[in-house]
Amino acid sequence: MDKNERQEGQGQEKQQKSAIDRLNQGINLARDAKSTYEISKRVAKKLKRTKMASRGLSFASKEAQLAIRGAQLAIKGAAATVEIWGPIALIVGFIVLVIIIIIIIFTGVSAPPTCRGLTANPTTISNSIPAILTLENCSENVTYSWDLPQIGGTFSAPQGTTTSYTPPKVNSDQKIYIFVNVCSSSNQDNCSQYSTPQLTISKEDLFSCNGYCALGNRCESPDVAGQGTCPSEGQQRTCCRTNPGPGPTKCETNPTDCLKKELNILVGGNTTEEKRSDVYRLLSEVAAASRYKTLLKASGPTTLEFINDPTKGGGCPARVKPIGGGRSLLILYNYDLNGCYRTTRKSRLAHETGHIIRNGHMRLFQQFESQGYYPKDKSCYKIDNRFSPRYFINTYNTSFGASQGVSISGSNETLAEFIALSVIPSGGYPSRCTSGYNWVKKNIFDNYVF
Ligand SMILES: [Zn+2]
User: For strand 174-176 and strand 179-184, is the pairing parallel, antiparallel, or unpaired?
Assistant: First the structure.
């Protein structure tokens, strides 16, 4: 490394760069000289050793030698740079490493706090049923900050060990997680995050409608619009209330009385007048068909019970149990005017009265089995080998029947479905099953058209 180079470079990097540049320059110079020499050689050969050629050749050769010497000098310079600065860089690197280790030891980077798992109770919640969230037994003193899910809501103690979370009212069930950040009290940057198990916000308690929720923006005649709101579930629904005016069979007194007098149904247990009234009203609409009404009354007295049993689920499930002497017990589970559509309730009741009529009129039922039931309308039936008889009208959900833990029969369920579908047709049924439909129309409904 010569004096000039040292003056040029102010830092190690610059000097190394300068040395490398010189090296590259030398190499390029050598390459140029070599190619000049080659060209000259070829020209000289062509000129067949004239004086000029020989002079040109010696010039090229001299230039090449000069360039090679320059390159050698540059390589030497670069090597010298590495010789000196290499060990210096190594020493500086080592010092920096020692400094970093000292900083780590003195500032104290410790493990984030750990706590015992986050608990949430209950896991199915609603605006009126908050979840109690607790995170305890942390490895050190910590501060808490509970994180609201995207859906919003409120915490009773956003910075507490225990807090209650109240979700907003929702239109449909929502699955959420809630997070809590716990940070070391001595170092707010040293934190851990915990998550609750999945919580479900139920749409329960969303609305209060003083009647039922009708599909669409019109109440079914003769009912009238009521007050309150209904869940939308993607479809427009209207809150409706029963028109106390003349209906298919007007109840002059109270629904319990009317159910007994008009339909021979005795209401047992405690339930609201509104629910009894609803059952009476829906059945009296079906009982506008006089033969059906006569058959239903003659099958009684039928006992009606309302039972709340969460294990039976929503959608107003129902069942009929024969109780001897051709009589039946009708159980309506979780009968909720807002929990299922009016048409669902009406269809369900019509279906169940089919079983009541069957229990009370076994000879009529046997006629159905021989004249209206499979195999005449083969295409409208499905087979479920778990049961006997095993042919069910396609609209019947055999899995649901089986889940109820009762033995079901294809002919019994099919008759009940024909009765329900005659009142509220669906998907082209029951008319897709000509034999069964015509039999039920004539023998149950006496050709009454709904
Ligand atoms: Zn049934």
Answer: unpaired
Q: Which chain residues have CB less than 5 Å from ligand 1, an ion? A: 413, 416
Query: pLDDT, tens digit, for every residue of 219-277?
Result: 776 667 777 777 665 667 777 776 554 445 678 889 999 999 999 999 987 889 889 99
| Ligand 1 centroid distance, CA of 233 (Å) | 27
* CB within 8 Å of 33: residues ≥ 6 apart: 60, 63, 64, 66, 67, 68
8 Å CB contact between 380 and 393: yes
Taking only the tens place, the pLDDT of each residue in 343-372 is 999 999 999 999 999 999 999 999 999 999
Which residues, 6+ apart, have CB-to-CB distance to 163 below 8 Å? 132, 133, 146, 155, 156, 157
**Residue 318 alpha carbon to ligand 1 centre in Å:** 8
What SS3 state is found at 306? Answer: strand
Rounded mean pLDDT, 401-415: 82
How many whole angstroms from 409 Cα to the centroid of ligand 1?
9
d(CA 372, ligand 1 centre) in Å:
17
Q: How far is CA 337 from CA 38, 105, 236, 276, 340, in A?
A: 104, 69, 17, 11, 6
By three-state DSSP, how is residue 75 classified? Answer: helix
Instruction: Give 257 Cα–ligand 1 centroid separation in angstroms.
Output: 26
Average pLDDT taken over every residue of the chain: 77
CA 355 – ligand 1 centroid, Å: 7
C-alpha to C-alpha distance for 316 and 350, rounded to whole angstroms: 13
Tokens of 49: 């050793």
Q: Which residue has tokens 């039999």?
A: 439
Helix (H) or strand (E) holding 217: none
Q: Residue 267 C-alpha to ligand 1 middle, in angstroms?
A: 20
The secondary structure element, H or E, covering residue 87 is: helix 51-107
